[in-house]
């Protein structure tokens, strides 16, 4: 697993095909590498998300490692701001465990969201809590009775946890889960229809409204944005289709 730290200003164009007006947003790019590091445990390693502890500057990378067709475990690695590894931990629950999202709360506790199961579609949403030394505090799973996965994780100003993901194996609905910092389940909300909707990442505003980005499957796959209020009620949703990102030189 390789990581590089860059100072960057991407140069790209965005076009929504099918509309007469093209939208172009051009920025200059400058890449200056401060350092790069790699992590090797003798198996396959995948980095899926990254979070920074604002109080210390420490960096947390989450993913999973293992061997295809054998077993995968959650992988969490801590680095300081100079890129020096502080520790790494893996988490195994006897099946396949995947880490997809990571977040740090105001007390420097680290949370991981992902999925946990044996064989598809018998997977549940997974939520883990670690202290800043890498010691596990607790874990939680959420099971709808079908395929479930947590992809994105964010924390609000009261250290409540929100997980965006997917529920149901066939096509699937967008899923939003809320827990408090002690691991107490608060509520879940779903958004879906006759086609599939998946939630991949989320953001929380100053009023604790939640915005989830993902995709909806119609004749093609379109960008999906859904807003929920702080109680988990659906407020609105928007779609945007045929998104093409063109880097300079293409």
From TrEMBL:
SUPFAM superfamilies: NHL repeat (SSF101898)
The protein's name: Bulb-type lectin domain-containing protein
Organism: marine sediment metagenome
Lineage: unclassified sequences, metagenomes, ecological metagenomes
């Amino acid at each position: 697993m390789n990581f590089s730290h860059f100072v960057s200003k991407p140069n790209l164009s965005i076009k929504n095909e099918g509309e007469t007006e093209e939208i172009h947003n051009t920025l200059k790019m400058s890449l200056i590498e401060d350092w790069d590091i790699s992590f090797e445990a003798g198996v396959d390693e995948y980095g899926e998300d990254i979070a920074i502890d604002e109080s210390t500057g420490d960096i947390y990378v989450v993913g999973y490692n293992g061997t295809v067709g054998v077993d995968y475990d959650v992988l969490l690695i801590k680095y300081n701001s100079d890129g020096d590894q502080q520790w790494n931990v893996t988490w195994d629950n006897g099946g396949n465990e995947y880490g997809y999202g990571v977040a740090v709360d105001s007390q420097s506790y680290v949370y991981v969201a992902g999925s946990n199961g044996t064989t598809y579609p018998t997977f549940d949403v997974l939520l883990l809590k670690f202290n800043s030394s890498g010691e596990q505090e607790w874990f939680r799973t959420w099971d709808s009775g079908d395929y479930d996965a947590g992809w994105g994780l964010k924390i609000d100003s009261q250290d409540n946890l929100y997980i965006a993901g997917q529920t149901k194996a066939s096509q699937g609905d967008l899923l939003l889960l809320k827990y408090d910092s002690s691991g107490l389940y608060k509520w879940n909300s779903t958004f879906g229809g006759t086609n599939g909707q998946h939630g991949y990442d989320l953001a929380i505003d100053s009023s604790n409204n939640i915005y989830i980005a993902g995709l909806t499957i119609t004749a093609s796959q379109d960008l999906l944005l859904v807003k929920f209020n702080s109680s988990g009620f659906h407020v609105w949703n928007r779609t945007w289709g045929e998104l093409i990102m063109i880097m300079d030189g293409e």
